[in-house]
Structure of Class I SAM-dependent methyltransferase:
Amino acid sequence: MTLLRDEDLAAAFDHASHTYDALVAANPGYHAHLRRSVRRLGLPAHGEGLRVLDLGCGTGASTAAIRSVLPAAEITAVDASAGMLARAAAKPWGDGVRFVHAPAEFLTDAGVHGPFDAVFAAYLFRNLTDPEAVLATVHSVLGPGGRLAVHEYSLSGRRADRAVWTLVCRGIVQPAATLLGDGPLYRHLWRSVVDFDQADRFAARIRGAGFDKVRTLPLPGWQTGITHTFVATRTGASR
Ligand SMILES: C[S@@+](CC[C@H](N)C(=O)[O-])C[C@H]1O[C@@H](n2cnc3c(N)ncnc32)[C@H](O)[C@@H]1O
């Protein structure tokens, strides 16, 4: 199968938006792992006075993780899928959270301007046509000392980890998604991970975008060797 990209991917997420929360709820640790990755940003407790960008916020699972760890931070949450974003925006957030319908590639056009203190991107980067261009954009919207956390399926390179990923997708995720009418998106999910950078390569790309203090951290459970948090700091000037 070919990968879904850009408008085709946004349309597939629009279609899948009504079942997305139920599917991720069936994934043990999904929400706890997101919160762990937010904590790995290493920001001051509560996030008072901080601006955080949630890139590819989907139905708001990552936004909720940021809100939980940094309840006082001001959050801008962006997504290219109107359907996913509508689900997110319909949830009760209180003050300090705004949702913007835009591709990550065109933040400025959508009125999303830095400087941010942190950017969080969960399960976004392997979906992008040009991840390096978006890393450059993320670098430019972060202020000096700004932090990046990318929470992503990025395989370790061990054959056993790839085999577990294939087993989970073929045995559990794809049959469930096909029943729900979203087979193409979840076949894309398997392929997008297999085709994406392995963890060392993606960390190198983050360094190549001008970030410092790049670290690759594992997540627990069946996702060890499959999902990582990549944390980094923008110390240098804008490129
Ligand atoms: C797998 S979901 C993850 C959602 C959320 N971050 C979470 O943790 O549950 C990926 C999201 O990225 C969005 N996305 C994909 N490509 C995008 C792009 N180029 N710009 C903005 N959002 C994009 C999709 O619409 C989708 O909502």
